[in-house]
Specification:
276 residues; alpha/beta; Metallo-beta-lactamase, Chain A; 2 domains; six-stranded mixed β-sheet; five-stranded mixed β-sheet; 11 strands; elongated
Length: 276
C-alpha cells in the first residue's frame, strides 16, 4: 500500500496533509478544504497543528482561484486537529466553529451542534454529533458527494483510540452503528482525519464494528484468565500490535474495562494521554 499524501480527492474536497506523521497520526493530520465548484468561498475542516508551512499551504489551497475562507470547522478538540486554529483564523480572517467553546473564534459564533446545516455558496454540510473518541466529536456529512468527514472516529487505516473519561466506548459503538446506517443509505465514502480516503464506507464501518467486538471478547477472555490491569490485558490481547502503540492500547483497554464494568486496578499506571 502506497503512503497517503493527500491532494484533491473530489470536485469539492482537497486534503492538505500536515507534517506531523507518527504511529498515532499515520502520515499526518488531514486538513480538509471544501468548496462548491465555482463557489467564491471555502470551508476548512481541522486546520491541524501549529506549523507555519502547513498553515500557509492550507491557506493557499483554501484561497485558490481568488476564493476566501468562509469558516473553519473542528471535528474535535485534540491538538493535532486544532492547535493551529487560532493562527489560521487570523491568517484567513475567518471564524472558527467547534463543539467545544474554547476553540470557537469570532463574534457571534455558536457552538456546533447536532442538526446544524452549514451552507456556503452552494456547498452544504450536515452536522452530526458522534461522540466516542471524545465527547465533542462532530462528523460532517457532505450529501453532494455521499461522503462523511469523520475526524478520528474512523481512520483511513487501522483502529482509533478511545481514551476515558472523555472517550466512552458505549458512545463509540452507538456512533459506529449510526455510521453503518448512513453507509446503507446516504453515504458511500469516508474522508477521515488521518490516512487515505475510504471509498467503501460500508466495508470500513463493518470492519470497525467487527474489530471492536472481537477485541472486547478478547478482553473478556483475558479478564477470565486473571489479567485485570490494562497493561496485563495489552500484553495478552495486543501481541499483534506494534509495541510503539501499546501505550495507546492501554487506554483503549481501560475504556473496554469500564464498558464491561470491571474496576481498573492501579489506574494511575496508565500511560500519559497521547493527545495532551
Amino acid at each position: 500500500m502506497s503512503a497517503w499524501t493527500g491532494g484533491t480527492v473530489s470536485p469539492r474536497a482537497r486534503c492538505v496533509l500536515a507534517p506531523n506523521g507518527s504511529p498515532m497520526t499515520l502520515e499526518g493530520t488531514n486538513t480538509w478544504v471544501l468548496a462548491e465548484p465555482g463557489g467564491a468561498r471555502s470551508i476548512v475542516v481541522d486546520p491541524g497543528p501549529l506549523d507555519a508551512d502547513h498553515l500557509d499551504a492550507v491557506l493557499a489551497a483554501a484561497t485558490e482561484g481568488g476564493r476566501s475562507v468562509a469558516m473553519v470547522l473542528a471535528t474535535h478538540r485534540h491538538h493535532d486537529h486544532v492547535e493551529g486554529a487560532q493562527a489560521f483564523a487570523v491568517m484567513a480572517d475567518a471564524p472558527v466553529r467547534a463543539a467545544d467553546p474554547q476553540f470557537q473564534i469570532g463574534p457571534g459564533i455558536t457552538a456546533l451542534a447536532e442538526g446544524d446545516k452549514i451552507c456556503v455558496d452552494g456547498l452544504e454540510l450536515d452536522v452530526l454529533h458522534t461522540p466516542g473518541h471524545t465527547s465533542d466529536c462532530m462528523t460532517f456529512l457532505l450529501p453532494a458527494e455521499r461522503a462523511i468527514l469523520t475526524g478520528d472516529m474512523v481512520l483511513g487505516r487501522g483502529p482509533t483510540v478511545v481514551i476515558p473519561p472523555d472517550g466512552v466506548l458505549r458512545d463509540y459503538f452507538a456512533s459506529l452503528e449510526r455510521f453503518a446506517a448512513l453507509a446503507g443509505d446516504v453515504v458511500d465514502t469516508v474522508y477521515p482525519g488521518h490516512g487515505p480516503v475510504l471509498p467503501d464506507a460500508g466495508a470500513a464501518i463493518d470492519y470497525y464494528l467487527t474489530h471492536r467486538r472481537q477485541r472486547l471478547e478478547q478482553v473478556r477472555a483475558a479478564i477470565d484468565a486473571g489479567d485485570v490491569t490494562p497493561r496485563q490485558v495489552v500484553e495478552r490481547v495486543y501481541v499483534d500490535v506494534d509495541k510503539a502503540l501499546w501505550p495507546a492500547a492501554e487506554w483503549s483497554v481501560k475504556a473496554q474495562l469500564i464498558f464491561l464494568g470491571v474496576a481498573v486496578e492501579n489506574p494511575d499506571e496508565v500511560p500519559p494521554n497521547p493527545y495532551r
